[in-house]
Amino acid sequence: MNPVNTDVSEFLRFLARFIATIFAVTEDGKVTFKDVTYLARLIPVIRPAFDDLPAVWDGFRGLSEDDKDKLTYLVADELDIDLDEKSRHICMKAIYTATDLIDLITSLKGFKAAQQ
Questions:
Q1: Which of 24, 32, 59, 78 could form a disulfide with 16 if both were Cys (CB 3.0 to 4.6 A apart)?
Q2: Are the beta carbons of 92 and 72 closer than 8 angstroms?
Q3: Is pLDDT at 31 greater than 80 in this prediction?
Q4: What is the residue-averaged pLDDT of the chain?
Q5: Are 74 and 1 contacting, i.e. CB atoms less than 8 angstroms apart?
Q6: Is 11 in contact with 97 (CB distance < 8 Å)?
Q7: What is the rounded CA–CA span in Å between residue 7 and residue 103?
Q8: In angstroms, what is the C-alpha Rg of the chain?
Q9: H helices within 1-115, ranges in order?
Q10: Distance CA 99, CA 109 (A)
């Protein structure tokens, strides 16, 4: 399933894996060698997530509620959780967090560019 648009999906995939990695690494309160495997899962999604930030921002701004609902499946898959009413709420939080994060990144990028 390739919901919505690729730029949005890839950024959301990165964020969900990042969240899952933080959860896995901090679950037992200490960082171990096993945690390296969780960190390694981030490597293949970093570049696709940040290839075209303006397109990602445009994609997030253009999401309908139906699009967001479709994206909950991607988030649930990356977080390795079953999608039910409670987990759908968590997945929607991830989507809204991703929207805020990409807004922050693009705003900071514009601010830095204006300072030069």
A1: 78
A2: yes
A3: no
A4: 88
A5: yes
A6: no
A7: 14
A8: 15
A9: 6-26, 34-40, 43-50, 53-61, 65-79, 85-115
A10: 15
Distance CA 89, CA 86 (A): 5
Q: List Cα–Cα distances, 84 to 13, 90, 94, 96, in angstroms.
A: 19, 10, 15, 18
Q: Among 9, 94, 101, which residue's Cα sits nearest to residue 49?
A: 9
Amino acid letter, residue 81: I
3-state DSSP assignment of residue 5: coil
Report the candidate in 47, 39, 1 with the shortest Cα–Cα distance to residue 20.
Answer: 39
Greatest CA separation found in the chain? 48
Average pLDDT estimate for 69-74 = 93
- CA proximity to 11, closest of 64, 52, 66: 52
pLDDT class of 4 with cuts at 50, 70, 90: low
Give the whole-angstrom CA distance, residue 74 versus residue 8: 11
